[in-house]
Amino acid sequence: MRRADRPNPVPAGLTALALVMPLAVVALATPALAAPGDLARTGTATASQFQSDADGTFPPDAAIDGDPATRWASGNGPDEDVPYAQWVQVDLGAEASVDHVVLAWEAAFAAGYEVQVATTAPDDPASWTAVHAEEAGDGGTDDVTFAATDARYVRVHMTQRTSFDWDPARPHWYGYSLFSFEVYGTATQTAVAFARSTTTVRAGETATVPLILASAAEADATVRVRSTGGTGVAGTDYTAVDETVTFPAGSTEASVSVPTVDHGPLGQVRTVELTLSEPSDALVLGGRTSTSVTIAPHGELPDVGGVTVLDDFESGVPAGYTTWGASAPVTPVLSTGPVDRGGNGLIATVGAEPAAGDWFGFTHDIAATDWSAHDGFTFWFLGTGEGGELRYELKSGGQLFERSVTDDTAGWRQVSVAFSQLRLKGTPASDARFDPSASTGFAVTLTDLGAGAWAFDDLGLYDRVSTIEDAEGEVPLAEPGSTVGIFTWGSAADLVRLGVTEQEREGLPADNHVLSGDYQIPSGGWGGFSQNLAAGQDWSSFRGIRLAWYASQPTRPASPTAGDDIKVELKDGGPDGEHSEVWAATFKDNWSSDGSRWKIVDLPFSQFTLSGYQPGDAATRNGTLDLTSAWGYAITMVPGTATTVSWAVDDVQLYGSAVPAPTATVDSDDVVLVDPGATAQVPVVLTTTDGQPLPADVTVDYANGAGTAVAGTHYDAFSGTLTFPAGAASGSAQTIEVVTHATDAVDDARTLTVDLSASGAAVGTTPRVVLNAVGAPYLDASRPTDERVDDLLGRMTLAEKVGQMTQAERLGLQSPTQIADLGLGSVLSGGGSVPAQNTAAGWADMVDAFQRQALSTRLQIPLIYGVDAVHGHNNVVGATIFPHNEGLGAARDADLVEQVQRTTAQEVRATGVPWTFAPCLCVTRDERWGRSYESFGEDPALVTAMAGAAVVGLQGTDPSDLSGPDKVLATAKHWVGDGGTTYDPALAGSGYPIDQGVTHVESLDELRRLHVDPYVPALDAGVGSIMPSYSAVSVAGADPIRMHEHGALNTDLLKGELGFDGFLISDWEGIDKLPGGTYADKAARSVNAGLDMAMAPYNFGAFITAITDKMGSGDVAQERVDDAVRRILTQKFALGLFDVPFADRSLAADVGSDAHRAVAREAAGKSQVLLKNTADLLPLAADTKLYVAGSNADDLGNQAGGWTISWQGGSGDITPGTSILEGIQAANSAVTYSEDASAPVGDAQVGVVVVGETPYAEGQGDVGNNGKSLSLSAADRAAIDTVCGALECVVLVVSGRPQLVTDQLGDIDALVASWLPGTEGAGVADVLFGTRPFTGRLPVSWPAAADQVPVNVGDETYAPLYPYGWGLRTDAQRDRLTALAGTLTGDAQAAVQAVLDAPIWAGSALDPARTAQAVRLLFAAAEELNGTERDTAAAAGTVVSLVRDLAQAASGPDDAATTADAEHALMSGDASGAVDLLADVLGVSTAPPVASTTTLSLSSPVVAFGNPVTARVTVKASGGAPAGTVQVLVDGTPVATATLTAAGTASVRLPADVATGRHRVTAVYAGAPTADPPVTGSTSAAATLTVTKTLPSVRTDGTDWTVGRSDPKVVLVQVAGVAGFTPTGTVDVWVNGSRRGSATLDARGAAEVTLPAGTRTSLVLVTYAGDRTYLPWIGAPRLLVVR
Question: Residues in domain F5/8 type C (predicted)?
Fold first, then answer.
């Protein structure tokens, strides 16, 4: 039965209001409680199901909570008239006598239902009894009475729905919904319960939580209430509750209070669970024994973002405002007038009271406008506080996106809505979103406000920003030991320092304060600072976190990706900031793009990923960045810095609005090209956010839009709808066909947009169809390039010409469409500027997308994309990374350089890039320069020798055809003198001490010799572009002129005298760096000086404006611009871009291929320079047990150096490759590795220590900057000391320049300069183990001390540790020469073969004893190989290497200059001169020997034996100076030697023992091989020497001449002759004329003769018979007296 005294408590208007009222308003309302006696209030409700979807959640408990604004809803059933049963029931908690129920229906009422009761087993259908049946329900409120019956469970079982007739086509059916379900009767026990399941309170206020009794208490009754849980923390978020609540006798209501704490508008939503227990005897616990108190943050967010006012109404009602209404009386009238906010406002006057069904408001329609730089829409509204609803809509894509606000405040209020919070009007669950980039206006609906004069002001756009910390006022620096507030942390104390300091920032007050400090964190350590909040905050509605960062670099780096990665961490969830889930993102420590050291860092929350460090427990780590309970942030600094690094942070803020990802996105190609007359196929691709099949249908409406093509003329107008059905796979595509027409024979390209709008998905790209240009001569590939250029140039506007002269950085583009809008001629990727997919395909896709934009322009002039591929395609992960130029210079192999560059060209072109800013032809004259490794070396002759090969490798041999897949446009850089700048130590740490400085030369001739000459072979090879240097040139002390404005060198010398016909491209922001004047002035000066294209990465628009204006003023001539554009277009035609503009991907699979890496491995091996090799320690045996240490042994990034993946490069495994350690391990498994040499040496036999530098680029690497020096790190030095102190050791220096090792050299057995070998460390291992011999030579001088730098070949004082050109080899000399001989022909081959055939070899090596002869033969071979032609020079290098081997073995410190000069001579093409200089080191002459003549004369041709004879020798040599000795021979036997006088004469006394007789005497001159020129030996004609017998002396000394008669009578005879030659033979003794005795002379020439006994006194005479030397002779007669 219906009770007329219980009207429906919810009017229809309130029902509608409940659907739109903000949740906070509804939740904070405190409804009146239901009448006493409602037994359901203390029960528990359940239902067969309930609705929970985009429209809201409607649980069964909402039907018994006593709140008339809440309801239960079943959710929709089938939309047709079929049976649909649902139920909702209440458990009263105890049996009661029930006699009626009250049901308050929502519009979806039950036309048929039963009221059922049960006492037990509610899950058993048999337990239920129907007490009332309704078959014609009409909604509203039903008060159903029935006979009293015992029940614990009461159910409404609904079987028949009502229909809705809003659709004229047919009725619709939904489900069931109840606002309230009340049960009345008499309880057997009094139940106590919470009055509702939830209570919401504003944080900081006290929540009043009601309790109720099912019936009035007869006496005082009590129940205990305690806080037992929830997300809130007692003492932090609320005051804990534990109290006994009393119901006075006769009452049914009581309450408990919960005081809460306000954490501000960003505080997180917290909950408190309250629980009932311990009811007094008169009570029992009812169904709702727990409730939740929600503590809601409130108040205006601390928004400091700016507002851009669109309409301030100070000048009347703006154009475009219109009104609308259901009838004239209610249609608003708009006017403006003074308002009490100040100034004028908009007044919308509604003059009549609206009737039911009326509608009215005003609108402002605008052309599609980009509002995407802002976060939301805002205006001021003068409210009355009467509760009406103000609705407003924003428009985009032909749709309305709605928002409303309740007029609950009297006075002016600011109404704001984030774009992301707008939903489609009428269908809020739709994925369609307002597109702020194409806003078409807004509308305001006044219908619910009614009649009146409604005031508005300052309609505009706002930027949503909330400050976390600005370092002003009381900064929350943490107390010592506390982790709440701002504090530093690290792996050790005091690694990071922090304070609050005053520091200026542009646009802020002069006394601005910042967080600042410095840090120095050792490698392997960590450190940073955190700001932990005292309580969690809700950041979930924001887009990201923002901060102002003060770059550590004192000068602006030359790359958008320069600087270290600084990590920012967010602390999400958990109990506090130290136990939360940590999410991380990074930004670059560098300058802002506008040239400020302060830069704004925006980090969208979507960029954060889970950090590797997670301090929270498992419950905290839910893997989702919720940010509903954010505890703060942390900033991690960079470890491993060489010096202390300063930092500063300001204005840490939350910004923007969270942008929920759409369920699906509809996208297309941005540009679709089609030949006129063909049908364009426009793809439409649907992608789901989660990658799953589409959950519901998506429809896409399309139609032709605006453009230069005319519907009906150039194409058929079109429109239609595409449907992607539910279940369609993500990535599904459909096609829109656009039929085009060929009209004119000659026509420019024409465009039209294809407008898309979608239901159920967001729309991404709006495609443009481009009808290709046709018929013009420049499009005809068969015509000569000059004709094509002339034709095109004649068609171009000024804007198109200046656009061609402009190059932008891809990161500088606000949108790719700027390429088309500005007609840009070029885009580049600076170091580290890479696509999201840093792969070959990712690059090609990116470049092709940019190219499509260029081809959407009128003339379809293709874009030329450029990169710094300086040692391979070094921006691309996985590309082949070669040694830097300094290593290639060490290899001294021009063929290898060409092969490296050709391989690079293949990889670059395969990624769609046709242009590289390489090769660098600088001559490095000071190793303190941070770019020295980009040079081939310090000798201009060496750079010259490599220049042509580098260009040919990149461009091929025909510079007019660069269209192949293995050719790119080369750029010779940096013209001119960049390697010769003067070091200024005052700039260390605050600028670039040497990079971008001034090159001082005494004369233009010196400039040519040192720096210009290397460009000549590049020009001969047809290099297509040249990049001027940042540096300046000063000749003979004149004022320096920066190369970017040096007309004499750029135009007169380069383009004029040297005939360069390519184009000059500036360096990165090279114009900006010019001194004096405005940017426009600098641009004009640069262009007038010969610059053709400006690399203006971010200010490309300013360049276009500057040149356009300067042409208008006459400061830049039309002819100069035409010349520049002609040069640019010529190269684009040469590249084939007009004919094949898109990426040729045919060689994409070769990027980083094994074949390419083999080339890099060869280059790495050939680049190694063996400086020292004691006892031939290298090469190592393959089974040698090795101990490997050092910082660069296993670091791929360090061995690759700067310009690898990023501008500055980076340590670690930054790209695929093989470290040196990995190369060693592949060749030898017996390896122990310990980076810091801390592991035991064990049984290792040889140590290998790989030391050197970490990566750097340009001025960042100048000595004195960023801790860079020529000294090894302390860790590397310690590793050398440790390993070399324990083992024989090899030290490899992996660096971009020499490192000082002088003081440790004595402990190093083998020293190798490894340079920066690239990704193929196995190439280094190849030479260590002898798979490839060491053949490299120093490309620069290796200094002995830091104060010796700069030290270069040719210096007046030159004493490096190792001279330029030094390099020990480990290949066999004979093998080297034999291999060469097989490649030669003619005289050169004969000369080399003569060396091989000469007797100068000891096995496979030159015989040291035959050095002079070997050198002369090698000199003769070198004479046949003089010249700079590549093959000749290579052959000459081999010949000279043999002499160098000898010279290096023999050289000392004083020979360094000679050795270096020899290398310079060789690289200059003077191979014989190189040998001559090396021969000087050996003390050997290479001049041709001259013949000598020797003559001999004797002082007497006849001489008695023993008499002196002198041989006089004279040696003469025409053109020479005989020196040395002569030898005199008698009858062919050497008898005497003498040294020639300066006059070539010598006197030789022949020996006394020349036998008697006739003799032949000759003189032999051995020659003077070391004389200059050498003198050959010669032999004199023979002279006859006759030696006659000589007279001896005969004596009888010692003879007793007076004897007795009986005494023996003995005559003692002595025969003497020439001293040393004793006479031989016999003597006779005569007595008175008769011979009385004879004797033979003994060895002394003496004899004794005994006379007969009877001899008396007589005259005695002795005679000598003579021999072959002495004549017979007689002694003096003596008287023998006998007594």
Answer: 28-186
| 10: nearest Cα among 104, 143, 142, 109 | 104
Please give the distance of CA 925 from its chain centroid, rounded to a whole number: 27
State the average pLDDT over residues 1020-1045: 97
Tell me the angle at which helices 1079-1088 and 1100-1113 cross, rounded to the nearest 10 degrees: 70
User: Does the annotation count 907 as an active-site position?
Assistant: no
CA 840 to mean position of chain CA atoms: 16
Distance CA 1578, CA 1542 (A): 17
Q: Where are the beta strands (DSSP E) in 1143-1245?
A: 1169-1173, 1186-1189, 1231-1233
Quote the distance between the C-alpha of residue 1073 and its chain's center: 24
Question: Does 1258 participate in catalysis according to the annotation?
Answer: yes
Domain boundaries, the chain: 1-188, 190-299, 307-463, 466-655, 678-760+770-775, 787-1149, 1168-1348, 1373-1462, 1492-1588, 1593-1682
Q: Answer for the pair 483, 489: CB distance below 8 angstroms, yes or no.
A: no
* Helix-then-strand count for the chain, H and E: 26, 90
Backbone phi and psi for residue 1618, each to the nearest 5 degrees, phi listed first: -65, 140
The Cα–Cα gap between 536 and 1374 comes to 80
Q: Which token pair is 1349?
A: 């730098």
Task: Answer whether 1-188 and 466-655 agree in fold.
Answer: yes
User: What is the C-alpha separation between 1122 and 858, in angstroms, rounded?
Assistant: 19
Task: Find residue 719's DSSP bridge partners.
Answer: 703
Is residue 914 predicted with pLDDT exceeding 70? yes
Q: Which fold has domain 466-655?
A: Jelly Rolls (2.60.120)
Kindly tell me the burial class for residue 1072, based on how many C-beta atoms sit within 10 Å of its own C-beta (0-12, 13-18, 19 or more): buried
Q: Does domain 787-1149 have CATH number 3.40.50.1220?
A: no
At residue 547, the pLDDT reads 97
- Asked if residue 919 has a cis previous peptide bond (ω within 30° of 0), the answer is yes
Integer Cα distance of 647 and 645 in angstroms: 7
* Span 1395-1416, average pLDDT: 94
Exposure string for 1484-1508, b = 16+ CB within 10 A, e = fewer = bbbeebbebbbebebeeeebbbbee
Check 237, 1067, 1162, 1455 and give the catalytic one. Answer: 1067
- Preceding amide of 1097 cis, omega within 30: no
Length of the chain: 1683
Distance CA 999, CA 976 (A): 9
Distances (CA, A) of 1349 to 1255, 1263, 1339, 1343, 1460: 21, 11, 15, 7, 16
Rounded-to-integer distance, Cα 1547 and Cα 1538, Å: 7
Q: What is the CATH number of domain 190-299?
A: 2.60.40.2030
| CATH 2.30.30.90 corresponds to the domain 307-463 | no
In contact, 870 and 881? CB cutoff 8 Å: no
Predicted TM-score (pTM) of the model is 0.74
- Residue 1158's contacts (CB-CB under 8 Å, 6 or more residues apart) are none
Q: What are the CB-based long-range contacts (under 8 Å, 24+) for 595-598?
A: 595/556, 595/1072, 596/506, 597/550, 597/551, 597/553, 597/556, 598/505, 598/506, 598/548, 598/549, 598/550, 598/551, 598/650
Question: pLDDT at position 455, please?
Answer: 97
pLDDT at 29 over 50: no
pLDDT one-digit tens code per residue, 1575-1627: 999 999 999 999 999 999 999 999 999 999 999 999 999 999 999 899 999 99
Q: Which of 389, 1258, 1288, 1326 is catalytic?
A: 1258
Cα distance between residue 1290 and residue 1181, in whole Å: 13
Which listed CATH number (3.40.50.1220, 1.10.287.1040, 2.60.120.260, 3.40.50.1000) goes with 1-188? 2.60.120.260
Count of CA atoms in the C-beta half-sphere (13 A) of 1444: 32
Confidence band, pLDDT 50/70/90 cuts, at residue 934: very high
Asked if CATH classification 3.30.300.20 holds for the domain at 1492-1588, the reply, yes or no, is: no
